[in-house]
C-alpha cells in the first residue's frame, strides 16, 4: 500500500509517495539521494542512520517514512556547504574525529541536537547524549575533543 506524504527535508518541502513499510532512512537515501546517513545495525542500536526530525535525533532505520509526514527532517547534507562547513564539521576535521566516516553523519547530527538543547554541556552530558552512537574505528576521544571545541566556541 502506498501513501502520499509531505515533509520538509533540509528546508525544502517534498511531496512523495511511499510504501507503508518504507523507512525514513530508505526514503532519504534512495528517493532523495541523500546518502550521508548510513545503514549499520538496522535495529536502532548503532546511530549510523541518525537524522534530525523536528530537531530531535532519531534512528531513521527504525522510523517509518509515513510517520515523518508533516515533519521537518534534517540530514548531514543540510548542515554546511563545501565552501562553508558547519562548525561541528570543521571541528571533526580539525581533530581527526573520523577514520572511515561511516558513523560521522550520525555523530554530528546528534551533537548538533545536543548543542541546540544545551549549548554548554559538561563532558559527562556530551558522553551521555552521544551514547547511542557507535564508532567502530574507535575515534571516541577525538569526537569528544571536536564536540568540546564547538562548545567552547558558543
Ligand atoms: S542503522 Fe539505525 S541505529 Fe544502527
Ligand atoms: S569513523 Fe569509522 S565507524 Fe566511526
* CATH superfamily caption of the largest domain: Beta-grasp domain
Radius of gyration: 15 Å
**Would you tell me the structural class of the helices and strands?**
alpha+beta
CATH topology grouping of the largest domain = Ubiquitin-like (UB roll)
Strand content: 15-25%
What is the tally of beta strands?
5
Task: Identify the bound ligands.
Answer: FE2/S2 (inorganic) cluster
Helix content: 25-40%
Span between N and C termini? 47 Å
Largest sheet: 5 strands, mixed
- Count of helical regions: 5
**Pattern of helices and strands:** EEHEEEHHHH
**Gross CATH architecture of the largest domain:** Roll
Low-confidence stretches: none
Spatially, the strands of the biggest sheet line up as 2-1-5-3-4
Mean pLDDT over the residues: 96
Number of domains: 2
CATH class of the largest domain: Alpha Beta
Summarize the topology:
Elements: E1 2-9, E2 12-19, H1 24-31, E3 50-53, E4 56-59, E5 72-74, H2 87-94, H3 104-117, H4 123-129, H5 140-153
Parallel strand pairs: 1-5
Antiparallel strand pairs: 1-2, 3-4, 3-5
The structure holds FE2/S2 (inorganic) cluster (2 copies).
The site of one FE2/S2 (inorganic) cluster has 12 residues, from loops.
Structure, explained:
- By secondary structure, this protein is α+β, with helices and mostly antiparallel strands.
- It has two domains: 2-77, Roll (Ubiquitin-like (UB roll)), CATH 3.10.20.30; 87-153, DNA polymerase, domain 1.
- Helix content is 33%, strand content 18%.
- It has five helices and five strands; from the N terminus they run ββαβββαααα.
- It has helices at residues 24-31, 87-94, 104-117, 123-129, 140-153, and strands at 2-9, 12-19, 50-53, 56-59, 72-74.
- A five-stranded mixed beta sheet has the order 2-1-5-3-4, with helices on one face.
- The longest helix is centred in the C-terminal third of the chain and has 14 residues, at 104-117.
- The protein is globular, with a radius of gyration of 15 Å.
- It binds FE2/S2 (inorganic) cluster (FES) (2 copies).
- Residues 39-42, 44-49, 59, 61 line the site of one FE2/S2 (inorganic) cluster.
Amino acid at each position: 500500500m502506498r501513501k502520499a506524504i509531505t515533509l520538509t527535508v533540509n528546508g525544502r518541502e517534498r511531496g512523495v509517495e511511499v510504501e507503508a513499510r518504507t523507512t525514513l532512512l530508505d526514503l532519504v537515501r534512495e528517493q532523495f539521494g541523500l546518502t550521508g546517513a548510513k545503514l549499520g545495525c538496522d535495529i536502532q542500536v548503532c546511530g549510523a542512520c541518525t537524522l534530525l526530525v523536528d530537531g530531535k535525533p532519531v534512528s531513521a532505520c527504525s522510523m517509518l517514512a509515513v510517520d515523518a509526514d508533516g515533519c521537518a527532517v534534517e540530514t548531514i547534507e543540510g548542515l554546511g556547504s563545501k565552501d562553508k562547513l558547519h562548525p561541528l564539521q570543521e571541528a571533526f576535521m580539525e581533530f581527526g574525529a573520523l577514520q572511515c566516516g561511516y558513523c560521522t553523519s550520525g555523530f554530528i547530527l546528534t551533537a548538533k541536537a545536543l548543542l541546540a538543547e544545551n549549548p554548554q554541556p559538561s563532558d559527562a552530558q556530551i558522553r551521555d547524549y552521544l551514547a547511542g552512537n557507535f564508532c567502530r574505528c574507535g575515534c571516541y576521544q577525538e569526537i569528544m575533543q571536536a564536540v568540546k571545541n564547538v562548545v567552547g566556541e558558543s
